[in-house]
Amino acid sequence: MKKHYFLLLIICFFCFNVHAQSSKKFVVSSTIIDQSTSGKDLIKLNFKESDQDVLNFEIGEWVGIKLDVHPHFATKGNFIYIPYSLLDLVELWILDENNNPQKLIETGQSYNFNTRAIEKSDFIFPIVEDVESYYLRIHSSKPIVLPFEILTNKDLIEALTTKDKLFGIYIGLMLVMFFYNLSLFIIVRDKTYLYYILYIITLLTAQLALFGYTDRFLFPNSPEINHKFAVLSGAIAGIFTVFFINDFLKLGQKAPIFSKLLFLVLILETIGIFFLFAGFENFAFFWVNFTSLYGSVIAIIVATKLTRTGSKQAKFFLLAWSVFLLSVVILVFMSIGLLSYSPFLKGSIIIGSSFEVVLLSIALADRINEMRREKIYSQDKALEMSQENQRIIKEQNKTLEQMVLLRTKELQKSNKELKITLQNLKETQSQLVQTEKMASLGVLTAGVAHELNNPLNYIQGGYSAILEHVNENQKKSPNKELFEYLQWIKTGTDRATKIVRSLNVYGKNQNDFEENVNVHKLTNDCLLILKHKLKDSIKIEKDFSDHARIIKMNRKKIHQILLNLIDNAIDSIKFEGEIKISTELKKNNIWLIVKDNGQGISEENLSKVFDPFFTTKPQGKGTGLGLSTVNSIVNECGGKVKIETEVNKGTIISIILPK
Asked: What is the predicted pLDDT for the residue at 20?
C-alpha cells in the first residue's frame, strides 16, 4: 500500500512541475466584494494581482476578478476556459469602444443551462476580438475554485472531448459494476449487494453533480435544483455509504459501538439536507462535508481495528477506502491551493472512486467464497451446495461480462451511426435552407425588375419626347436651365435602369473593383441627384484632396456608398444645418468623410446601425438598408467604416478604403 501512495505522490509532483512551467497567456487579479457591488462597479475597484493561475475563495464569497489576456491571445477564436462547475453566478463584463462597462453574459448554476455562452459542463467564454481586459463577478454557495485557461478552438475541443470521453469511460465502468452487483443481488439475495448498488448509483450521481453533468443533462431548466444538487447528492451518497459499511463489515456483531457512531452520520446528513432546503446553503455545504469527514474517520478506525483481527473483508475495505480518501485529499488540496491545478489531479477523485468500486466488488465476490467456506466446516452437503453456487456464479459472471461487452459494442456502433446520421441531417437542412433563400430572392428580384421596367420605359419615352420638343424650340427661346433639369431626369432614369439590370443578375460575383473612379466628380453627381432634398436650408461644404481623387473600385458601388451617406446626413438635419464632405489620403488609404450637425445617433442604436432593415426614420421614409449596404460594400473591398456621433450634435462617418 505504501508503494502505491509513493507512486501517486510522484505523479502529483510531476503534474505540479509541468503545470508551473506552462507559458503565461494572461494575468489574473482578484478582490473580495459585497453582494451589492454590481458588475459596472468592478471597473472602479483595485485588484490584487495573483502569481497563481488557480484562485481559491471561501464558501459563499462574492468575488471580483480581472483577467488581462496577453495581446497575442486576445483574438477571435480563442476562449476563456474555467474547468470548474460549482459556480452559482458568473457575470462577464468588458469595456466597449467608449470605455463604458458592457455585460456580455450572466450565467451559473442559479440560471437555466442555455444561458451559457457554450453549453458545456464547465464555464467557457469566447474572447472578443482585440479586447484584453475582462471582468468577472462570481458567487457560489460552494468553494470557489477558478483554474483559468486560455485555449484556442482546437485545444478547447480537444480538452472537452477528452474530458467527456474519460467521464464516459467512468460512467460505463460504474454502470458495469452496478449491473454486475445487481445481478449478484438477484442471484444471492444478500442485502449487502442492495446497499452496495445503491451506494454505487448515488456515488455516480454525486460525481456527475461535482463535474457539472447533472446541470447539463438532468436539470438544464431547473436552476433551483442545480445549485443545491451537489450538496444534496453528496448527503444521499453518505447515507447509503453508512448502510453499506455497516452491513459489509458486520459492525452490529463485531463492533457495535462503532456501528452506533457510524449511524450518527444518518442523522447528521439529514440535518444537512434540512439546512440546504431551509436556505442555509453555505452552512449546509460545510455541514455535509464535515459529516462526511467524521464518517470517513470512523470508517478508517473501525476497518483498521477489524483488519488486526484478521478480517479479510476489512482489509479489502481499508485498502479501497484509503485510496478513495487519498483522491479526495488530493482534490481538496488542489481546491485550497496546496497543489497546483491540473486535469489529472482534478480527475483523481474519478480514479479513486473507480478503484474503490472495483476493489469492493472484488471483496463482495470474495465474500461469497468466505460464506461458502464457513458452510464447508459445518456439513458436507453445504460444501457441495457451495461448489454448485460457485459454478453458477462463475457462469453468470462470464455471461454477464460477455453480454455487457456485446451490448457496449452495439451501443458504440449505434452511437457512431447516429452521429453520422445527425451530421448528414444538419448538412442537408443547411443546404435546403440556403436553396429556399436563393429561390425566394430570385422570385423577388425578378418581380421587382419586371415591375420597374414598365414605368422606366414611360419615363425614358417622355424624356425623349420632351428633349425633341425642346431642341425644336431652342432656337426660338434658349433655356439652359431646362436642359439641366432634363439631364437630371436622364441621370435618374439611367441609374434606375442600372439598378434593374443589377437585379436581373443578382447572385453573380461582383468583384471587379479595378475601375478608376473620380471620387470628387461622383460626389458632385450624388449632390446633383439629391439637390431636391437640400433646398436652401442645408449648406454643403466640400474639402477634397487631389491625392485622394482617384480610387480603383466599382463605380456603381462607390456611388451607392456616397449616395447613402449623403442621403442619411440630409435626413438627420431637421431644419437648417451643414454637411461637410471631404477626402484625404492617409497611409495609402483613401478616407471619404461625411460630417453633419444633425440629430446624431443614440448609444442604444449605435450597435444596430449596420443591421439590415434597422431604421430610426418614420414609417415609409426609410428602408433600413442604407448603412447595411455601405458596410457590406466596404467590407467587400477590404475597408472599414468608422462612426463618431453625439446626440443632438451630429455624426461623422469615415469610409476607409485601400487605394
From this structure: 38
Is the CA virtual torsion 49, 52, 58, 59 positive or negative? positive
Q: Does CATH place domain 516-658 in 3.30.565.10?
A: yes
The pLDDT assigned to 524 comes to: 85
| Closest listed residue to residue 492, CA positions, set 545, 554, 559, 442 | 559
The closest of 632, 505, 618, 656 to 560, measured between CA atoms, is 632
What is the C-alpha to C-alpha distance for residues 643 and 646, in angstroms, rounded to an integer?
10
Cα separation, 549 vs 520, in Å, equals 6
Question: What's the CATH class of domain 18-154?
Answer: mainly beta
Cell numbers placing 422: 445527425
**CB contact at 8 A, 520 and 590:** no
At 361, list the grid cell.
466488488
Burial class (CB in 10 A: 0-12, 13-18, 19+), 115: middle
Question: Given pLDDT bands bounded at 50, 70 and 90, which one contains residue 40?
Answer: very high
Amino acid at 245: I
Q: Which residues on neighbouring strands pair with residue 69, listed in sequence order?
A: 26
Please, is 49 exposed, middle or buried when counting C-beta atoms within 10 Å of its C-beta (0-12, 13-18, 19+)?
Answer: exposed
Residue 218 is classified by DSSP as I
DSSP per residue over 54-80, as a string?
Answer: EEEE-TT-EEEEEEEE-GGG-SBTEEE
Q: How many CB atoms lie within 10 A of CB 346?
A: 20
First to last CA, the chain: 75
Query: Which amino acid is residue 519, in one-letter code?
Result: V
pTM of the model: 0.53
